[in-house]
Amino acid sequence: MKAIIKIIITVIIILSINNNASAEQYYVSELMKITMRTGPGVSHKVISMVSSGDILTMLEYSKEWSRVRAANGKEGWVLTRFITKNRPLALIVDELREKNQELSVMLDKMKTDNLELSETREKLINLEKSYNILKEKSSTFLVMEQKYNEAARQLEEQKERVSTLESQLKNEDMIWFISGAGVLLVGIILGVSAKKEKRNSLL
């Protein structure tokens, strides 16, 4: 609210500066209509009526009557005491009212933008939190994946060793089997030979 008041005061100051800079422009005084005549005096014909707030361009100034040009292009004489260089209060009020409406619209837009900004900031905070959680989980997953790969590699090595040992064991069993069979066969042969020799000696 204070900001709006400051802006309104600034607008009034700017309008006052513009009034001083435009020395050629006059305004019809507050809350009245005055006649514009063909000459400087009430005996001259009325050619137009000008109202409070109408802008008049000064063509010829005098203490009693001044020749002016209205916004519609008409030229004539008006009583000098009914015109002023100062902008009428009613005109300033209308302009300030219009400016106030514009400022109200701007204020509403700023409130809306501020709300959207707050929502966006909250979304960014939540997104950052989600990202950090995902990042932490991802790093944990990578560590677990590395451990899994290492365990899988060791398991494969163990399988290969077991397979090799099983092969060696089978080979040793075969050797022992063959050796045992050979010993048994030799024993049988020797036994048969001994029986034959014994028979021959008896004969």
UniProtKB/TrEMBL annotation:
Classification via InterPro entries: SH3-like_bac-type, SH3_dom_pro
GO cellular component: membrane
Coiled coil: 93-175
Gene3D superfamilies recorded: SH3 Domains
PROSITE patterns recorded: SH3B
Main localization of the protein described in the UniProt heading: membrane
Subcellular location: Membrane
SMART domains named among the record's database cross-references: SH3b
Residues covered by the SH3b domain: 23-87
Transmembrane segments: 174-194
A Pfam match: SH3_3
Membrane topology: Single-pass membrane protein
Keywords annotated in UniProt: Coiled coil, Membrane, Signal, Transmembrane, Transmembrane helix
NCBIfam families hit by this protein: SH3_and_anchor
Name this polypeptide is given: SH3b domain-containing protein
Organism encoding this protein: Desulfamplus magnetovallimortis
